[in-house]
């Protein structure tokens, strides 16, 4: 038994020796080659972008870890990576903070494009693309027998999300050779409040909220770089937690707004705030309580660019070349933010509506019904009066014949 263990130990040492090169975990059978595209992987995170480079081909190409730097910034130690020799193969890691990404020459380009989301709505959405490269320095000579190494990378962040707090998770991206996608959705959340100061979280009694109770909602960003603001593009409700539920009621979109909804802040900071009056879905008419889920399609926009995406209601834009933003949002790389359920009383408990609520504005459906009833009533009254007049005229000749003597009958 001891001899067997000793033999296995010798075999393990032989394997470990054969996979070591200059103290690094490299195997000459696999890594004695020039670097290839598969040697770099990317993680596009919320706070940082992490780059991982297979160090072994770099080593076999005649370079050291100190020769690799971001965007040619070889004289800046902060733009170099660090060696992780606890993996196989050994890797060089670079970490790029999104708050200071320009420090090492990385590029941020925000493009604005039209698109169609899953709901068939057209809108403008911004896409942030962060790109750069890692390379080795050129020698101060006329010629060189060493290959020049360069690894290009990019991370694309769609800046519009349909946010759902039940699906919030840490940002993830597929590992790619040169580019990858990231998302800021894990920084977003929606919270409901009782009051306009947004200090008391919404408390729902066991019997549900009374109809027409005003609820205050806030979409917030947490641990997000200050260069981004929140723009709520489209908020709506559904009777279920499914944001794709075919039955929905819109609260606001662009310049279109439910009469009972008020938007307080949008596109000006890392918080969007609005309020609305709770209601019940008619499909819950046989239930004592109705559930309402709130969803918001949310954009992130650079603070200086948000003015481009905010709809201007009631007047035209200054430049004719700019297109109206009164259209529904695009949901590139969408994820979901939902708040709820908001539980309301269905009205089946015979509660009286307070008199103070009677002065509130009627919604469009109620106004249409009242107008229709009034018009129909007017038509009926007019028809009745006309019928009476015609009936009266039809009787006049008979009365004259019976009361006046015809001279031809003398």
From TrEMBL:
The organism's superkingdom is given as: Eukaryota
Identify the stretch annotated as signal peptide in this record: 1-19
Glycosyltransferase as UniProt keyword: no
Keyword terms, alphabetized: Disulfide bond, Membrane, Signal, Transmembrane, Transmembrane helix
Matching entries from Gene3D superfamilies are given as:
Zona pellucida, ZP-C domain
Residue ranges of the TM segments: 364-386
Q: Where is the ZP domain?
A: 43-320
What name does UniProt use for this protein?
Answer: Zona pellucida like domain containing 1
Name its species: Xiphophorus maculatus
């Amino acid at each position: 038994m001891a001899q067997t263990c000793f033999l296995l130990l010798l075999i393990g040492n032989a394997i470990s020796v054969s996979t070591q090169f200059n103290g690094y975990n490299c195997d000459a059978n696999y890594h004695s080659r020039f670097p290839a595209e598969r040697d770099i992987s990317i993680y596009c995170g919320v706070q940082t972008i992490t780059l991982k480079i297979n160090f072994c081909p770099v080593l076999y190409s005649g370079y050291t870890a100190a020769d690799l730097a971001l965007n040619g910034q070889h004289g800046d130690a902060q733009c170099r990576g660090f060696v992780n020799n606890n993996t196989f193969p050994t890797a060089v890691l670079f970490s790029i903070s999104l708050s200071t990404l320009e420090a090492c020459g990385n590029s941020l380009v925000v493009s604005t494009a039209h698109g169609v989301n899953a709901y068939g709505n057209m809108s403008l959405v911004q896409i942030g693309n962060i790109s750069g490269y890692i390379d080795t320095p050129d020698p101060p000579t006329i010629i060189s027998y060493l290959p020049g190494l360069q690894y290009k990378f990019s991370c694309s962040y769609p800046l519009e999300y349909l946010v759902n707090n039940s699906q919030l998770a840490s940002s993830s991206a597929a590992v790619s050779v040169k580019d990858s996608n990231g998302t800021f959705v894990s920084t977003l959340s929606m919270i409901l409040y009782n009051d306009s100061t947004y200090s008391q979280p919404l408390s729902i009694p066991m019997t549900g909220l009374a109809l027409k109770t005003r609820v205050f909602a806030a979409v917030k960003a947490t641990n997000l770089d200050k260069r981004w603001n929140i723009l709520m593009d489209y908020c709506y409700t559904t009777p279920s937690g499914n944001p794709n539920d075919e039955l929905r009621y819109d609260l606001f979109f662009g310049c279109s707004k439910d009469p009972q909804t008020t938007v307080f802040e949008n596109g000006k900071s890392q918080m969007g705030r609005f309020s609305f009056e709770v209601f019940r879905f008619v499909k819950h008419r046989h239930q004592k309580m109705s559930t309402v889920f709130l969803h918001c399609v949310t954009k992130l926009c650079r603070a200086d660019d948000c003015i481009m995406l905010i709809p201007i209601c009631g007047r035209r834009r200054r430049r004719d070349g700019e297109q109206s933003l009164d259209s529904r949002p695009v949901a590139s790389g969408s994820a979901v933010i939902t708040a709820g359920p908001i539980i309301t009383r269905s009205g089946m408990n015979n509660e009286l509506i307070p008199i103070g609520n009677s002065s509130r504005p009627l919604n469009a459906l109620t106004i249409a019904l009242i107008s229709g009833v009034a018009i129909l009533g007017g038509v009926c009254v007019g028809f009745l009066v006309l019928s009476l007049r015609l009936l009266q005229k039809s009787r006049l000749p008979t009365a004259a014949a019976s009361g006046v003597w015809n001279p031809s009958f003398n």
